[in-house]
Design a protein that fits this description.
The protein is α+β, with helices and mostly antiparallel strands. The protein has a single domain (about 25-235), classed as outer membrane lipoprotein receptor (LolB), chain A (Clam). It has helices at about 1-20, 160-170, 180-185, and strands at about 25-35, 40-50, 55, 60-65, 70-75, 80-90, 95-100, 115-125, 130-140, 145-155, 190-200, 205-220, 235. Strand 5 and strand 6 (about 80-90) form a beta hairpin. Helix 2 (about 160-170) packs antiparallel against helix 3 (about 180-185).
C-alpha cells in the first residue's frame, strides 16, 4: 500500500511538471516614421515579450531584457557582439533602471522640461486597428514646443496590456517629449498606445516629426531561444 501511494505521488508531481502552463507569449510590430528636413525614414521593430522577458529588434540592433536574471543585453546583430547592463530596482518607486556604463559618459542629451497641457480629444476613436481614446498634449520649454497626439486602447487580454504598457513606459522614461503619455500609462496599466504623432518645433532648427503606429499586437508563440543571446555572441571589449 505504501509503495502504491509513493508511486501515485511521484506520478502526480511528474504530471504537474509536464503540464505546467508556460507564461503566455506575445508579439507586437511597431512602425516608426521620422521626418526631418522633408526627408522621411521608416523603421520597423519587432517586440516579443512574456513575463520577465522582452526581445526588441529593428533588424540592426536587438535588446534582450531579462528581468528574471537582472540584466539587459544590447546586441549588434550583424557583428554578433553584445553589451550588458544590470537592471536595478529603485527603492523609491520600484521601477527598473539601467546602470550607467561607458557608452553614456560624455553624451550630451538635450532633454528639456516642458510645461504641459493635456486634453482628451475624443473617446472610442476608430483611427488605426483599435477603438481608442485620443489625447492631445502641448508642451512648452525655453527653446522647444512640442505637439503630442496619442491614442490609448484597452485590449481584452489584460496580461498582454499590462506587459506592453510597461514596455512602453520604460522606453519613454528618458524622453521628456512623451512625458504626458508615460504618466497616463503609469496610471492606466491596462491601456496601451496604438498610435503616436510627435511634432517638435525649435526656432533654430527644422521641425522633427515622429509617427509611431502599432501594426500588430497579439498572443503568439515566440521563436525558440529568442530571449537568449545567439550562439557565438561575444561580449564587447
Amino acid at each position: 500500500m505504501g509503495k502504491k501511494r509513493i508511486t501515485l505521488i511521484v506520478f502526480a508531481v511528474i504530471s504537474l511538471s509536464v503540464f505546467a502552463k508556460e507564461p503566455q507569449q506575445y508579439h507586437a510590430v511597431v512602425k516608426t516614421t521620422r521626418t526631418y528636413m522633408d526627408v522621411s525614414r521608416e523603421t520597423q521593430s519587432d517586440y516579443w515579450f512574456t513575463k520577465g522577458k522582452t526581445f526588441t529588434s529593428n533588424g540592426r540592433v536587438a535588446t534582450i531584457s531579462r528581468h528574471d536574471l537582472g540584466v539587459v543585453y544590447t546586441l549588434l546583430i550583424k557583428k554578433n557582439i553584445y553589451y550588458v547592463d544590470s537592471i536595478k530596482a529603485d527603492k523609491k518607486d520600484n521601477t527598473a533602471t539601467k546602470d550607467i556604463d561607458f557608452r553614456y559618459i560624455g553624451v550630451d542629451r538635450y532633454n528639456p522640461v516642458y510645461d504641459w497641457v493635456t486634453n482628451l480629444e475624443s473617446k472610442n476613436d476608430t483611427t488605426g486597428l483599435f477603438k481608442s481614446d485620443h489625447y492631445i498634449a502641448d508642451g512648452d520649454a525655453d527653446f522647444d514646443q512640442v505637439s503630442l497626439e496619442f491614442w490609448l486602447t484597452k485590449p481584452d487580454d489584460r496580461n498582454m496590456a499590462e506587459l506592453f504598457s510597461e514596455i512602453a513606459v520604460n522606453s519613454m522614461s528618458y524622453q521628456s517629449t512623451r512625458k504626458p503619455m508615460a504618466d497616463l500609462l503609469s496610471k492606466k496599466k491596462q491601456e496601451v498606445p496604438v498610435r503616436i504623432i510627435e511634432l517638435i518645433n525649435n526656432p533654430i532648427a527644422p521641425p522633427i516629426k515622429n509617427v509611431i503606429v502599432i501594426e500588430k499586437l497579439e498572443p503568439a508563440e515566440a521563436p525558440e531561444g529568442i530571449f537568449d543571446l545567439p550562439a557565438g555572441a561575444k561580449k564587447a571589449q
